[in-house]
Amino acid sequence: MKKIILSAMFIGLTLSVTAQDTPTADAIIDKYLNAIGGKDAIAKIEDMTIGTTSETQRGTMEMEVKIKKPNKFSSVIYMMGNEVMRSTSDGSKVATVSGFGGNTNERTAEGKDAIAMILQNVPFPELLYAEYGVQKTVLGKEALDGKDAWKVEIAIPEGRKWNEFFDVESGLKVKRMANMEGMRPGGGQRPEGQQPPSGGGNGPGGGQRGGMRGGMGGGMMNATLSNYKEIKDGFGVKIPFTREQGNAQFSSKAEVSSVKVNKGIKDNTFTIK
Hints:
single chain
């Protein structure tokens, strides 16, 4: 009888210690924001233009992503010098025009589908979570490349879910994993296009998350974020300069080639016609 009681006490103590060792999702995200420069520094960034270059199975891909706080973005993707996709968000809707394979597709996402695309294309989506009622749940700890990372589920009310991974030691976001089943260019649920993706948002590949993957079919899309660096004239804020992403049908490695901050991007850049 004593052994049973002692065993029960040990199990209860173990569960208690484990629960105490697991931080809240808010604490994990706060550590990440501090690791990339802090909320005060991020708040000084009014707009950003990020250029990236990728080598893919389809050839060289270049992208220019323009972002204006709090939730506007415009991304253009070029393959071998030719524009193949353009996504624009006015902060409410997201319009995407794609021209892969000689076919032109136009789609506009609204409501929860647009919210998901916005969150996966702006560089600091965590600052919008409260506004959009995003739910965050810590799913546990996983090993990534020999290092422990917290796995956090991000869920839009009545919308899409995806998982983000934060390095336990550094606090940096190191991976995003999303189920892309049923995806089509321009999002929608048949669901939306991060990318994002983008990183996150989060640096290279903002528009790519909301765009390229739409033509890649379903399955799991993994995006690995690394090589965090301070951006020039960016108040000490860091973004990942390398983003590797892919699924069974497509993979790419994007490197940031340029970043411009607070250049006064005009609002008509984000007008949806």
